[in-house]
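Work Package 4 report. The design task specified in the project plan requires that, given a folded chain encoded as structure tokens, an amino acid be chosen for each position. We show below one input record used in the internal validation round.
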């Protein structure tokens, strides 16, 4: 699962043309925060946390001066909780999953989505003959509704599972 720009930067990979999912880049803030973010340009001036190496959040923060990289979403949300940063950026699904896992859903809340990006499958260039086959399967799964069912089940499973501690 990779965004479009991933392929442009990785010349050994071939993008399967049909997107099969999407991600929503979302901003998260402490519940009592008065900060309101409506677009990526509103992030300027705030201390923003992101997970190191995640392309969609790196792209959206590339011109910001106050960016903190974390090793994981859990570490990023702990920074936000402690007030070391003003905002955290991640995929909405990931953010909600981690908030549930850390029992922070009453302390940290999602704000407005900042971007919705299509996701693609990539193959190594050595597997170029498989591109059309994989693309046709994705198209078939979309047409017959099976992909939507798989996605719905996966999202439900992620968002409704609380770890047992």
């Amino acid at each position: 699962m990779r965004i479009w720009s991933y392929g442009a930067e990785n010349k050994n990979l071939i993008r399967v043309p049909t997107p099969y999912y999407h991600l929503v880049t979302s901003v998260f803030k402490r519940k009592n925060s008065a900060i309101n973010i409506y677009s990526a340009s509103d992030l300027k001036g705030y201390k923003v946390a992101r997970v190191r190496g995640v392309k969609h959040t790196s792209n959206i923060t590339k011109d910001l001066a106050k960016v903190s990289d974390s090793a994981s979403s859990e570490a990023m949300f702990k920074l936000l909780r402690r007030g070391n940063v003003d905002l955290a950026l991640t995929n909405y699904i990931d953010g909600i999953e981690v908030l549930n896992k850390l029992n922070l859903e009453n302390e940290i809340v999602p704000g407005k989505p900042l971007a919705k990006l299509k996701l693609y499958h990539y193959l190594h260039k050595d597997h170029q003959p498989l591109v059309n086959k994989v693309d046709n399967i994705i198209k078939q799964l979309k047409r017959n509704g099976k992909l939507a069912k798989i996605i719905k089940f996966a999202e439900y499973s992620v968002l409704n599972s609380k770890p047992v501690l």
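Residues 65 and 89 are 15 Å apart (CA to CA). Validation will be extended to a larger panel in the next phase.
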